[in-house]
Design goal:
- This protein has 231 residues and is an all-alpha fold.
- The chain is 72% helix and 0% strand.
- It is built from twelve helices and no strands.
- It has helices at residues 2-14, 22-42, 54-76, 82-98, 110-113, 117-129, 137-156, 161-172, 175-181, 187-202, 206-217, 223-230.
- α7 packs antiparallel against α9 (175-181).
- The protein is globular.
Length: 231
């Protein structure tokens, strides 16, 4: 969540000055990572000794194999779905060329009207790498985050470690999720923010609940439909 927020803020800060280029992005992310490292050093996370249980470990290995397979597919196959080539990727290329996320002339209004957060993340990957090799990995990371988040929701509901593992397995083996996870569309990232919304609602963490909702509606319009019932 903090990575998504930092990406949005950094993009909007650099865009008016046409500075969305490799040097400025490298400098910006070094500052962000440095600040995060200083915060972690000053506020270390409490770590508990992990307990190895056979069933939970087997499920974790299965999920790791699924995510690794998706990551390999995402790495080897360039963005190639119709929707990606119609507006997801073109807007990234236009932004990279202009070094700004300002509006540009187009006859396909989705390129300038759809929520942009997912493409902001992919824009950074595109510019930093110099091509589209890393673009699909954003969805893979979001899919892995959904698996972790669903397990965390089960834990927040007071379920056992075995139930948390089965909740993660259910999420990680959804056919539609697997199909989306290795491509450049924004569904997995939207799902991740909605999973975070449910988790922080269960924990009554209102600031992060609000942030989850904001990130969701900044990623895809369908969040306007799914978020209210969840809330």
């Amino acid at each position: 969540m903090l990575t998504g927020t930092a990406t949005a803020l950094l993009t909007e800060a650099l865009s008016p000055f046409h500075l969305i280029a490799r040097p400025a992005l490298i400098a910006g992310w070094l500052l962000i990572v440095g600040a995060a490292a200083c915060w972690v050093i000053r506020h270390p996370f409490p770590l508990s000794q992990p307990v190895i249980r056979p069933l939970e470990t087997a499920i974790a290995i299965c999920l790791a194999v699924i995510v690794a397979s998706l990551a390999l597919t995402a790495w080897l196959a360039p963005p190639n779905t119709f929707d990606a080539l119609a507006y997801h990727m073109p807007r990234i290329v236009y932004w990279a060329q202009a070094r700004s996320v300002a509006f540009f002339p187009t006859t396909y209004l989705s390129q300038i009207s759809s929520p942009p957060l997912d493409e902001f993340l992919k824009l950074h990957a595109y510019v930093l790498w110099g091509g589209d090799r890393l673009v699909n990995l954003v969805s893979v990371a979001a899919f892995a985050g959904c698996i972790t988040g669903v397990s965390s929701i089960a834990g927040a509901l007071g379920l056992s470690s075995r139930s948390q593992a089965f909740a993660a397995l259910l999420c990680g083996t959804l056919p539609s999720g697997i199909l989306q996870a290795s491509g450049p569309k924004n569904d997995c990232l939207t799902a991740l923010w909605l999973v975070c919304l449910v988790y922080f609602a269960l924990r009554a963490d209102l600031p992060f609940l609000g942030l989850s909702l904001g990130l969701a509606v900044a990623t895809k319009g369908t969040a306007y439909l799914f978020a209210p019932p969840l809330l």
